[in-house]
């Protein structure tokens, strides 16, 4: 039983170590917060289907680059073959918030001249008492980079679904409008098995993909 | 299927975690496995669930209970896994098992646990298991599994994977078979695995890699890269109207991926691997395909070729990314100094050995697939018949052995080359293939050594040539590079050449001696006194073309040209540029001034564009690496923005873009010119941060005009502030508690970016928005202030509105005047003066409404002087004339000669006088202006223009301006430092139209004093501005 999906989006999750990238991915792909091991159980890649509109499913392939950062060529390839990403920081760790800019710069270096659609995620929002980054300043930063901001908690399953689905919807809109288009040799977006002809009108025009600048 | 794969952790059936994570539970799981050794449709789910649970217990045991591992090993539980796999139990089980193993190995943290798991070769059995790789999921999880394992490799664990005795290294050899898999993620994983393997410093293993796998792998890899390049080239050549850009950008990105990967291997710095890789890259790809295509652009011929632009572009990328010295030096040597013989000389040298005409440096397909080569090698390894390793390459053992090998090679050679010259054919005879490969390696080894030989001889030669003269050797590649610099038609190729030269000279691996050959200094070169004239002239020509109205030079090309020229002519102790070159450059700069003048308009937008371009140029300086990542420059330069190509990488389209381009050309050439003359930039940017009032500055506001108001911000905040208007800024201050009459700035914003609107139903209120100038042309301006100001009554409100509106106009006008001065255009007086100044100066001078500290600060560099000037300006209550004198006499910098005091008063008066002149009177001097001996008269004419006549006269005066510029070209006035927008002092002497009064007060005509007075003039001009403003406010209030 092959799941039928309209598109496959490849996403990356980046951010400082310890911000909870793996937990977030795990929570999303399995619906369960991994308590089994500490340090967190590493994941390599997971995929899941998301239904953004009735009958329209998108397959998300989520990559965690943990462990490969040593080689520039590898990181580069990961970034380049992703259409979107979650940029995580830990709301209880100011440093991880300050590094958001570094992460964006790093991405920029790798994907020039294209861009990855990012959503800024303030993680561990269940630990509100230890908060070191206010929602306001995070929203301001996100606005400055033209991103959305969302606060999540993998432990309490707050907004985890929403973070991924919102991002997926945004990307889907861009794909639909032809601002991101499928390109042979690029695996950020792949066209899936279209169940019937209903969607044919939405087939993407092959145009200047990904160039959102 | 992924739905089912959830919940591997924790069991998820409501059972307490405690009971699941225990040795007992593992024992139970073992029991389940023993009962279900055969996979059937019925127990499939149970088995998968069991494997999952076992994995979970193992991860738990890794951290909590080592007895778990003991039991696992004792019972050989891995065998069950293998057994399940081998039953061809279908995709579902395969995927689950691979994923579970993946998670298991990823999460094992203790070395000992890992050793347990790896100890009895079961993992290797799983690696070599023939999965159904046509299944995407299986492929993905399989390669992920290998990657996870490779991340666990180190000097100890490598023994579990690499078997020295059997020459087996399944993890590596199985992985590299997928090096050209269509899925890029699989390829990435393969690269990760290889890099992780090379990184392990285990000599026997690395020797195995080199001897058994390096040649097949690298030759196939190089072929794979080359095939992409050919495809890329096709894409460029068959492109129509930029339709291929999407595909092209992917191919370019792919090439970059390759280069980064190669560079990552080279960085690991495993010497003998690098030798093999360098050899293959140079002799199988870079030289025969990239470099060879530089000269042989004629179609046809046997050798594969790519077009010139692609070749230059790719070579630039190579030099930007790869910094491995032996590779980049050999490559640079051939480009800068080699000739076509590098493609044939090897044959000549070998001719005694080998009569067959085979071109050694050739881009050809490997004779067999990688899988086959590996297979053959493996068999060879096992047959102990072999005396020595097949894929003998370089320096494994000592010299003598190599000598004996040579002899053997000679014997083999004839056969071997025959095979290779026949080209691509797969031979079933192992023996022969082996020889072919050996042959090639041998020859390339030789070729490397010849390159080094060449180096030394050439160094001697160049030393003899004593540098400066361009030798008449045959250097076709270099000639081609120089030729491509020519931009008479367009800069299509020139941009790539500049990139290539830039990349070479910034490459850390390149020996400066190599670059010295074309006298292009590396970044931090030693002292020297000559430079490459051919190159310099080429660069200056680019600048000349760029300054032409219809110049087809893209901004990126110009910027890069400027960078390179600076690098070229700058020695340790400053510029060594020849006068003649500097003169040419000045010519280009002059041209750029002329070009920009055509676009200079009084319109608001011009100022915004001018400042915007300056900002975006300084914020985003050229990044060559980014430039070379953009595939769009591979296609012929285009003008239309519809392509989505960045403005600097294409030609301008329409008037707005032409203006923007002219502005940028002006900035670049001006900056270059100043730099080469070692003069500081004193005029740009028009607004300097350090001159502006900033938040939390404490100002002396005694006698300043302040208007109290309530500021209500958008989010509802409400504060009491005093509004003060400065020349460029408005500020909101609150009283300083420490000092009476002083204020602390709570907000300061540029008047020029302000919008003031009345509030419909409240005559005491104003809406004020100040935008922060956009940091890039694409981003929206961001409001830094958006608030409603409420004043105590409507009169104060009107006054405030007046001041702000006038201040805005004035601030913009001041800046426009400064731009005019930069362009050597006649200064247009503030029409405010002319229009508003209907009354005698004596009457109006009594009221000076605004504090203008900025301009008087600008001329000075000493902070203490600044302060005092600042203070004195601030204190002056309302005596404009007195202020002119008092303010400047004590300032040492602004009054270098005793006459300056009177001069500045004189300015006040003379401007007053001139501005009272009627427009008709203004016309007469501008007629005189055409007289060549008095070019500056134009300026005096302009000073008296009113708004009404402005446009008409500026048109008529354009010719005169041009004349005067040609006359004064040597002066290049826009480069005179610290020149402020001035109303020329000289003209007063010669213009009858001016008042007698002004004649008497004007200092002698001397260019030096003109300059020194300029800032005085400026501030006195402002006084005038203030005066007329007061006037207007008065009028308005009295209405």
UniProtKB/TrEMBL annotation, chain A:
<dbReference type="GO" id="GO:0006914">
    <property type="term" value="P:autophagy"/>
</dbReference>
<dbReference type="Pfam" id="PF00071">
    <property type="entry name" value="Ras"/>
</dbReference>
<protein>
    <recommendedName>
        <fullName>Ras-related protein Rab-39B</fullName>
    </recommendedName>
</protein>
<dbReference type="InterPro" id="IPR050209">
    <property type="entry name" value="Rab_GTPases_membrane_traffic"/>
</dbReference>
<keyword id="KW-0342">GTP-binding</keyword>
<keyword id="KW-0636">Prenylation</keyword>
<keyword id="KW-0472">Membrane</keyword>
<dbReference type="GO" id="GO:0032482">
    <property type="term" value="P:Rab protein signal transduction"/>
</dbReference>
<dbReference type="InterPro" id="IPR001806">
    <property type="entry name" value="Small_GTPase"/>
</dbReference>
<dbReference type="InterPro" id="IPR005225">
    <property type="entry name" value="Small_GTP-bd"/>
</dbReference>
<dbReference type="GO" id="GO:0005886">
    <property type="term" value="C:plasma membrane"/>
</dbReference>
<keyword id="KW-0449">Lipoprotein</keyword>
<dbReference type="GO" id="GO:0120281">
    <property type="term" value="C:autolysosome membrane"/>
</dbReference>
<keyword id="KW-0488">Methylation</keyword>
<dbReference type="GO" id="GO:0030659">
    <property type="term" value="C:cytoplasmic vesicle membrane"/>
</dbReference>
<dbReference type="InterPro" id="IPR027417">
    <property type="entry name" value="P-loop_NTPase"/>
</dbReference>
<dbReference type="InterPro" id="IPR041818">
    <property type="entry name" value="Rab39"/>
</dbReference>
<keyword id="KW-0547">Nucleotide-binding</keyword>
<keyword id="KW-1003">Cell membrane</keyword>
<keyword id="KW-0968">Cytoplasmic vesicle</keyword>
<keyword id="KW-0072">Autophagy</keyword>
<dbReference type="GO" id="GO:0003924">
    <property type="term" value="F:GTPase activity"/>
</dbReference>
UniProtKB/TrEMBL annotation, chain B:
<feature type="compositionally biased region" description="Basic residues">
    <location>
        <begin position="379"/>
        <end position="390"/>
    </location>
</feature>
<feature type="domain" description="CLEC16A/TT9 C-terminal">
    <location>
        <begin position="243"/>
        <end position="1013"/>
    </location>
</feature>
<dbReference type="InterPro" id="IPR045820">
    <property type="entry name" value="CLEC16A/TT9_C"/>
</dbReference>
<dbReference type="InterPro" id="IPR039272">
    <property type="entry name" value="CLEC16A/TT9"/>
</dbReference>
<feature type="compositionally biased region" description="Low complexity">
    <location>
        <begin position="909"/>
        <end position="932"/>
    </location>
</feature>
<dbReference type="InterPro" id="IPR019155">
    <property type="entry name" value="CLEC16A/TT9_N"/>
</dbReference>
<dbReference type="GO" id="GO:0006914">
    <property type="term" value="P:autophagy"/>
</dbReference>
<feature type="compositionally biased region" description="Acidic residues">
    <location>
        <begin position="396"/>
        <end position="409"/>
    </location>
</feature>
<feature type="domain" description="FPL">
    <location>
        <begin position="51"/>
        <end position="198"/>
    </location>
</feature>
<feature type="region of interest" description="Disordered">
    <location>
        <begin position="887"/>
        <end position="935"/>
    </location>
</feature>
<feature type="compositionally biased region" description="Low complexity">
    <location>
        <begin position="890"/>
        <end position="902"/>
    </location>
</feature>
<dbReference type="Pfam" id="PF19439">
    <property type="entry name" value="CLEC16A_C"/>
</dbReference>
<dbReference type="Pfam" id="PF09758">
    <property type="entry name" value="FPL"/>
</dbReference>
<comment type="similarity">
    <text>Belongs to the CLEC16A/gop-1 family.</text>
</comment>
<feature type="region of interest" description="Disordered">
    <location>
        <begin position="375"/>
        <end position="429"/>
    </location>
</feature>
<feature type="compositionally biased region" description="Polar residues">
    <location>
        <begin position="417"/>
        <end position="427"/>
    </location>
</feature>
<protein>
    <submittedName>
        <fullName>Protein CLEC16A</fullName>
    </submittedName>
</protein>
<keyword id="KW-0072">Autophagy</keyword>
């Amino acid at each position: 039983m092959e799941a039928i999906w309209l598109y496959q989006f490849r996403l990356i999750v980046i951010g400082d170590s310890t911000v909870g990238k793996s937990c977030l991915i795990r929570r999303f792909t399995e619906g369960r917060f991994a308590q089994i091991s500490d340090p967190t159980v590493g994941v390599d890649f997971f995929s899941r289907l998301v239904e953004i509109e009735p009958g329209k499913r998108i397959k998300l392939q989520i990559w965690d680059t943990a462990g490969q950062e040593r080689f520039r060529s590898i990181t580069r390839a990961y970034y380049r073959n992703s259409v979107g990403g979650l940029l995580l920081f830990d709301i209880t760790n100011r440093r991880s918030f300050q590094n958001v800019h570094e992460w964006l710069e790093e991405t920029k270096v790798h994907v020039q001249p294209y861009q990855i659609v990012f959503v800024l995620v303030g993680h561990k929002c269940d630990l509100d008492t230890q908060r070191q980054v206010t929602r306001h300043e995070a929203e301001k930063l996100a606005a400055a980079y033209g991103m959305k901001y969302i606060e999540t908690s993998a432990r309490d399953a707050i907004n985890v679904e929403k973070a991924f689905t919102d991002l997926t919807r945004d990307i889907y809109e861009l794909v639909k409008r032809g601002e991101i288009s499928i390109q042979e040799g690029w695996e950020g977006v792949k066209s899936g098995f279209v169940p019937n002809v209903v969607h044919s009108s939405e087939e993407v025009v092959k145009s200047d993909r990904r160039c959102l600048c | 299927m992924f739905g089912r794969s959830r919940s591997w952790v924790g069991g998820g059936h409501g059972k307490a975690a405690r009971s699941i994570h225990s040795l007992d539970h593992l024992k139970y799981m073992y029991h389940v496995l023993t009962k279900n050794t055969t996979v059937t449709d019925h127990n499939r789910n149970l088995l998968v669930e069991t494997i999952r649970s076992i994995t979970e217990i193992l991860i738990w045991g890794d951290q909590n209970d080592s007895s778990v591992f003991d039991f696992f090993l004792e019972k050989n539980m891995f065998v069950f896994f293998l057994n399940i796999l081998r039953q061809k139990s279908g995709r579902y089980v395969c995927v689950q098992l691979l994923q579970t193993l993946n998670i298991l190995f990823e999460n094992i943290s203790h070395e000992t646990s890992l050793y347990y798991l790896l100890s009895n070769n079961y993992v290797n059995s799983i690696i070599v298991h023939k999965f159904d790789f046509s299944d995407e999921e299986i492929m993905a999880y399989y390669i992920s599994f290998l990657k996870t394992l490779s991340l666990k490799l180190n000097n100890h664990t490598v023994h579990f994977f690499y078997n020295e005795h059997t020459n087996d290294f399944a993890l590596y050899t199985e992985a590299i078979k997928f090096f050209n898999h269509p899925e890029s993620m699989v390829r990435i994983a393969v690269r990760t695995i290889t890099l992780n393997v090379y990184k392990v410093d285990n000599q026997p293993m690395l020797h195995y890699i080199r001897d058994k796998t390096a040649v097949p792998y690298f030759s196939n890899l190089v072929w794979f890269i080359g095939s992409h390049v050919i495809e890329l080239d096709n894409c460029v050549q068959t492109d129509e109207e930029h339709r291929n850009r999407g595909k092209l950008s992917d191919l370019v990105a792919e090439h970059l991926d390759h280069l980064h990967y190669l560079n990552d291997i080279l960085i690991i710095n495993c010497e003998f691997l690098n030798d093999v890789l360098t050899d293959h890259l140079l002799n199988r790809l870079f030289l025969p395909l990239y470099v060879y295509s530089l000269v042989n652009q004629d179609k046809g011929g046997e050798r594969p070729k790519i077009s010139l632009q692609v070749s230059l572009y790719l070579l630039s990328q190579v030099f930007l990314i790869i910094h491995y010295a032996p590779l980049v030096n050999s490559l640079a040597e051939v480009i800068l100094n080699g000739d076509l013989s590098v493609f044939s000389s090897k044959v000549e040298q070998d001719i005694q050995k080998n009569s067959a005409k085979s071109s050694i440096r050739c881009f050809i397909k490997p004779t067999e697939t990688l899988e086959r080569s590996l297979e053959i090698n493996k068999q060879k390894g096992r047959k102990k018949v072999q005396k020595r390793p097949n894929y003998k390459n370089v320096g494994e053992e000592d010299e003598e052995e190599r000598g004996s090998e040579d002899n053997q090679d000679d014997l083999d050679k004839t056969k071997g080359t025959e095979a290779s010259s026949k080209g691509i054919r797969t031979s079933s005879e192992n023996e022969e293939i082996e020889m072919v490969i050996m042959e090639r390696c041998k020859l390339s080894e030789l070729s490397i050594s010849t390159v080094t030989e060449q180096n030394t001889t050439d160094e001697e030669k160049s030393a003899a040539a004593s540098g400066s003269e361009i030798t008449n050797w045959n250097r076709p590649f270099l000639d081609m590079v120089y030729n491509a610099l020519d931009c008479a038609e367009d800069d299509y190729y020139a941009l790539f050449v500049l990139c290539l030269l830039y990349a070479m000279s910034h490459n850390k691996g390149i020996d400066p001696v190599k670059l010295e050959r074309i006298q292009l200094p590396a970044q931090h070169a030693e002292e020297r006194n000559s430079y490459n004239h051919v190159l310099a002239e080429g660069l200056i020509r680019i600048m000349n073309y760029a300054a032409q109205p219809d110049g087809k030079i893209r901004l990126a090309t110009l910027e890069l040209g400027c960078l390179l020229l600076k690098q070229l002519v700058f020695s340790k102790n400053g510029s060594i540029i020849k006068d003649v070159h500097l003169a040419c450059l000045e010519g280009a700069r002059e041209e750029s001034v002329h070009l920009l003048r055509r676009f200079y308009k009084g319109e608001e937008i011009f100022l915004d564009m001018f400042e915007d371009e300056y900002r975006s140029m300084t914020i985003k300086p050229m990044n060559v690496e980014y430039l070379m990542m953009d595939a769009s420059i591979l296609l012929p330069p285009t003008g239309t923005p519809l392509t989505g190509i960045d403005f600097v990488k294409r030609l301008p389209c329409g008037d707005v873009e032409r203006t923007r381009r002219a502005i940028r050309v002006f900035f670049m050439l001006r900056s270059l010119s100043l730099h080469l003359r070692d003069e500081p930039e004193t005029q740009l940017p028009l607004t300097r941060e350090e001159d502006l009032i900033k938040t939390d500055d404490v100002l002396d506001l005694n006698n300043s005009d302040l208007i109290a108001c309530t500021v209500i911000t958008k989010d509802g905040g409400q504060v009491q502030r005093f509004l003060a208007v400065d020349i460029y800024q408005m500020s909101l201050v609150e009283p300083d508690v420490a000092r009476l009459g002083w204020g602390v700035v709570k907000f300061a914003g540029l008047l020029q970016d302000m919008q003031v609107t009345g509030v419909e139903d409240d005559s005491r209120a104003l809406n004020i928005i100040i935008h922060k100038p956009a940091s890039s042309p694409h981003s929206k301006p961001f409001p830094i202030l958006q608030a409603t100001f409420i004043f105590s009554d409507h009169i104060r409100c009107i006054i405030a509105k007046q001041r702000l509106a006038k201040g805005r106009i004035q601030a913009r006008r001041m800046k426009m005047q400064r731009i005019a001065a930069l362009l050597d255009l006649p200064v247009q007086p503030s029409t405010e003066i002319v229009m508003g100044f209907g009354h005698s100066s004596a009457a109006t001078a009594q009221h000076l409404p605004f504090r203008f500290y900025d301009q008087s600060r600008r001329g000075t560099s000493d902070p203490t002087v600044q302060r005092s000037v600042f203070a004195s300006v601030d204190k002056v209550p309302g005596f404009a004339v007195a202020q002119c004198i008092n303010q400047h006499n004590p300032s040492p910098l602004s009054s270098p000669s005793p006459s300056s005091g009177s001069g500045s008063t004189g300015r006040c008066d003379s401007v007053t006088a001139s501005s009272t002149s009627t427009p008709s009177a203004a016309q007469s001097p501008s007629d005189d202006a055409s007289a060549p001996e008095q070019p500056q008269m134009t300026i005096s004419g302009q000073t008296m223009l009113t708004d009404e006549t402005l446009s008409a006269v500026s048109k008529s005066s354009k010719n005169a301006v041009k004349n005067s510029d040609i006359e004064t070209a040597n002066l290049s006035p826009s480069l005179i430092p610290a020149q402020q927008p001035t109303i020329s002092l000289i003209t007063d002497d010669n213009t009858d139209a001016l008042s007698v009064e002004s004649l008497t007060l004007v200092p002698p005509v001397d260019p030096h004093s003109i300059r020194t007075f300029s800032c005085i003039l400026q501030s006195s001009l402002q006084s005038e501005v203030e005066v007329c403003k007061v006037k207007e406010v008065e009028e308005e209030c009295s209405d």
